[in-house]
Structure formats: C-alpha cells, structure tokens
Amino acid sequence: MSTVKRIFHQFGSPPWLFRFAGFAIPWLWAACLGLGAWGLWWGLVKAPPDYLQGESVRIMYLHVPSAWMSMGIYAGMAVFGFCALVWRVRAAEVIALASAPVGAAFTLLALVTGSLWGRPTWGTYWVWDARLTSELVLLFLYLGVMGLAAAFDEPRKGARAACLLALVGLVNLPLIHYSVEWWNTLHQPASVGVEGSSIHPSMLWPLLLMALATKFYYLANLLTRTRLQLVVENRKSRWVRDWVLETR
Amino acid sequence: MDHTPFIVGAYAAGALVLTWCALAPVLRLRRLRRQLADRQRRRAAAESA
Predict the structure, then answer these.
(1) Which of A83-104 are b and which e, b meaning 16 or more Cβ less than 10 Å from the residue's Cβ?
(2) Domain count along chain B
(3) Cβ contact, residue pair A116, B13, below 8 Å
(4) A73: closest CA among A45, A97, A42, A41?
(5) Measured between CB atoms, which of A109, A116, A221 is closest to B6?
(6) Domain ranges, residue B47
(7) Is residue B5 part of a domain?
(8) Is residue B39 in a domain?
(9) What is the pLDDT of residues B1-49, one digit of tens each?
(10) Does a structural domain hold residue B9?
(11) Interface test with B, best of A45, A94, A113 (most B CBs within 10 A)
(12) A50 touches A202 (CB < 8 A)
C-alpha cells in the first residue's frame, strides 16, 4: 500500500484519528500561543502607528488574520464536505462540520474588529459595502451549515445536507475576495497578495506572525472538536470505553 | 479622536470569542467523559450484583 493511501486510510479510522489528535493538540496550542504572544507584542508595542490611520492600525493585526481565516476555513470546510459527499469518508464529514463553529467565530471577529476600526477611520461602524455585506453573508452561511447539521433527527442526513450547503456557499468566496475590485467599495483593496505587499516590513511581520498563530489556533480547535465528535458518534465502541477507563 | 477604546474593544472581543470557541469543546468532552465513566461504573455495579 502506498504511503498516501495508508495515510488516507488512517485518517478514515476514528480511533487512529482520535489518538493522533490527542497527541497533536498540545503542540499546536504551544505554537499558537508562542507565535500569538510574539505577534501581539510586535503589533501592539514595537510596530509604529500608521501615518494615516494612526494607532487604530493596530486593530489590523487581529482583523486581517481573522478575515483570512474566515475565508480559508470555509474553503477547507467545502473541500472536506466534497470528500464526505463523493467518497463518503466519515472523518471528512466530521472535520467539515467541526470547522464551521471556528470559521463562524473568525467571521464574527472580522466583522466586529472591522467595525471597531471603521468608526475612527471611516467615521462609521457599518456601511452596506460589497465587502462587508458579503462577509456578513459568510457568517450566515456558517450559521446555516451549523443549523442544518443539527436540524435532522438522523445526524448523518443533517451532516450531508450541511456539507451540500457548504459546497453551494463556496460561490460567496470569490465575491468576498474580488468585491473590492469589481465594485466601488469603501473597503480598501488588498495590501498583501501573492505578488507582494505594499505594507512596510515593520507592520507586515507582526501581521504574518498573527496570521500563522491563527492557523495553529484553527488546527488545535478543529482537532479538539473532531475528538469530541468522534466520541459522540462512537460512544459504544470498544476504543471509547478504553479511553474512558484510561482517563478515569 | 482617541483610538484606545477601539483597540482595547477589538482585542477584548477577540479574547472573548476565541477563548469561548476554544473552551466550549474541551468542557463538553470533559462532561461527556464523566457521563460515560458514570454509565460504565453503574453497568459494572449492576453486573457484579
């Protein structure tokens, strides 16, 4: 059996995934907290204020990584949802559904921190701008996925419906990303892209550190939620009984 | 305009949302483990009686 195939099969095995998650979670939290503390210190203490935005630019070190995560997690959720629907990989379904609350939290955070940045910078907490509105739609999509998964008496049916909604909602991601180019928006275009960045390194580095910290936060949180879901679904299995005895 | 309340508000919201989102599944898993352990204990007691 090839290595890729073996890894694929291992991820499909609930006890293996449960044990792997239990091993990885503390390391992921350590990386998240270390990088987060470093990024926060750099962004809030060391980095200079912006010549135009002043001190309010410090909100960006939380707002921008949250906005990136809100879209990245949705894309990941849709990919896992696709795997769950097409190949019926149960672990992919669990991971897709476990991603939704974390994605919703980052989307909410992007909206709240953006609003708190908008008041001193634009003079308003909210405008029905294409970027802001499509990000709000993303929050509703996450809530829809979570609600749909819980709305069925038969959990597997709910999970499949939620995965389908996650796939349909994928259409919103290019709308969010290109909204600042396609329409005349109050929200500024992207300052960091594949081709480079228009941000000074003194501000770019703390932003990238915070972006990395949020990635580790997501992975740690995702694996914790995956462990919970695996126990809920396999509570009568031998390996869950053994785990309960182990930790008594 | 003083920007401090907006910065503090944004980071406080961040701490609140991310802490809640991280702790919720940990607490639920702990509660579930306790329930399962109680159930196993009751079953073992019933079998030995």
Answers:
(1) bbbeeebbbbbbbbbbbbbbbb
(2) 1
(3) yes
(4) A97
(5) A116
(6) 17-49
(7) no
(8) yes
(9) 889 999 999 999 999 999 999 999 999 999 999 999 999 889 889 988 7
(10) no
(11) A113
(12) no
Report ipTM for this prediction: 0.92
A59 with B6: Cβ contact below 8 A: yes
Asked if A245's CB is within 8 angstroms of B40's CB, the reply is yes
* Model confidence pLDDT, tens digit, residues A169-220: 999 999 999 999 898 888 888 877 777 778 889 999 999 999 999 999 999 9
pTM for this prediction: 0.93
The 3-state DSSP composition of chain A as helix, strand, coil percent (nearest 5) reads 80, 0, 15
Task: Give domain status of residue B4, yes or no.
Answer: no
Helix (H) or strand (E) holding A59: none
User: Are A109 and B18 a contacting pair at CB < 8 A?
Assistant: yes
A226: left (phi over 0), alpha (psi -120 to 50) or beta: alpha
